[in-house]
Design a protein that fits this description.
4-stranded mixed β-sheet, alpha+beta, 4-stranded antiparallel β-sheet, 179 residues
């Protein structure tokens, strides 16, 4: 819909400019102004669409996730208690979707056992976590696939994490002792 509106807006501007040069200045100016209004409204609606979807609780579209990924700078992932793949300090985007932090599961390759769409995260001195990979992101996704990459919600793993500028520090959470 927005593409058609933009095309119509550009056509109106072009037609308006043509009319201005053919001595119909007032009508040409009206057409050109209408073209600018159409293009501007299409862009405003496109920008507001993400906020509207968020307010309704709808899942993000792939283009919205792509925009978030593009704007997210990579973080250097470090840890003293984990083996980060491929090396400590490797850069991965830490994306925030609906208030939750997600990172590529590739960070945890040494601790993952994958069977089809089931991912079992087994960290030292922690209970294993079994997550099912969803084919796309949704509001309650714990593990999802996007552009052939798998992202995991950090709050689902037995880890403590803290961001410090462009660094993400992750450690295994201390086990709760039961009496």
């Amino acid at each position: 819909m927005f593409i058609a509106q933009r095309v119509l807006g550009y056509a109106a501007i072009l037609f308006g400019v043509f009319m201005i040069f053919s001595s119909a200045f007032v009508q040409g100016a009206v057409f050109a102004a209408a073209g600018f209004v159409l293009i501007s409204l299409a862009e405003l609606v496109r920008l507001q669409q993400g906020t509207y979807h968020l307010a309704l609780g709808l899942p993000l579209k792939n283009e919205q996730i792509n925009d978030i990924m593009r704007r997210t700078p990579p973080s250097k992932v470090t840890s003293s208690s984990l083996n980060i793949h491929p090396f400590d300090g490797a850069e991965y985007p830490l994306i925030r979707l609906h208030g939750e932090s997600y990172i590529r599961a590739k960070v945890f390759v040494p601790y993952i056992v994958q069977t089809e769409m089931e991912y079992r995260f087994a960290f030292p001195n922690a209970e294993p976590v079994l997550l099912i990979c969803e084919p796309r992101y949704s509001l309650d996704s714990r593990l999802f696939q996007y552009n052939e990459q798998v992202y995991v919600k950090l709050s689902e793993l037995p880890l403590k994490y803290q961001t410090e500028g462009d660094r993400l520090r992750m450690e295994i959470a201390a086990r709760q002792h039961q009496l």
